[in-house]
Amino acid sequence: MRAWVVLLLATTALAGCSDAPERSVDGGHDHGAFHTCPDGTVIDPGAYADHHEPDFDPASKCPAPDASARVTLRVDAADAASATAYQPVTLRWDVTPAGDATGVSESQVRSSREDAAAPEAPEAYGELVAEATDREAPFEAVAEWTPVEDGVYFLRAHARVGDDVVWSDAVRVEVAPVAPTDVVHTITINTGTTEPELDPADLEVVVGDAVQWQNTDPALTYAIASSDGPSSFDGTADPNAPSDDVVFLRAGTWTYTVTDALLGRSASGTITVTPP
To answer: What global pTM score does this model have?
Structure first.
C-alpha cells in the first residue's frame, strides 16, 4: 500500500510541474519565471543583478523592436525558377511602417543583372519594373513585370518613408528564352539592273520566327549583315541557295544589308519583330 501511495504522490507532483511555468533556478534559489519576448527572445531573470528588486520587470529586458520600416518582395516560386521572356511575372511587395511614419512617397521594384548590394539612390539599382506612389503603410502592392530578354535577374523592392529609403532582400529570377515557333519567312534576293532587289524589302515577323534569304542568282554570292538593331546577325547566300535561318528571340527593328561579293552592289531592308 505504501508503494502505491508514494507512486501516486510522485505522479501528482510531476503533473503539477508540467502545468507550472518554467522558472529560473540556480543553486536552489528561485529567481522567477522565464519571460518570452515578442520576438521570441527568452529572458532569464537570474542573469540580471537587479532581479531581486521589487519593481524588476523581465519584459523591460527584451530587445528594442526594430525602429525601421520593412519591405518584403515576393515572386511566385514557379515564376522565379522558370519564367519565360515575354510572359508576365506577378510581383507582390509589402511595406510595413515603423512608429508613426506611415507616409510612403515612392515604392518601386527594380531589376538588375548583377546581385549587387542595395544602393542609397534607387535609380542606381538596375531598371524600374514596377511602381506604387503616395501610399499609406502598411500596404501590399501588386504588379506584373514582363521580361523581354532571357537570363538571370535580381529584383529588389524599396520604399521611401520620410527621408529614409528601405530595401527588400534580392529575389533571383531566371528567365528562359522564347521557344522558336518553327515559322520560317523567306526574303528573296533578285539581281537587279543596278542593285540587288529584296522581296519583301520590309518584313514583319513575331518573336520566335526565323528568316532566311533565298538567292536566285546562278553566279553571285551575297553577304548578309545587320547594320542596326537590338542585336547583330550575319550570313551568306550562295548562288541559287538559301542562307542559314536567323531566329529572332526578342522584339525590335533590325536594318540589314545584302552585298554581292563580286561587284560590291548592295541593298538594304528591315525586319520588324513584334512580341508574341
So the answer is: 0.66
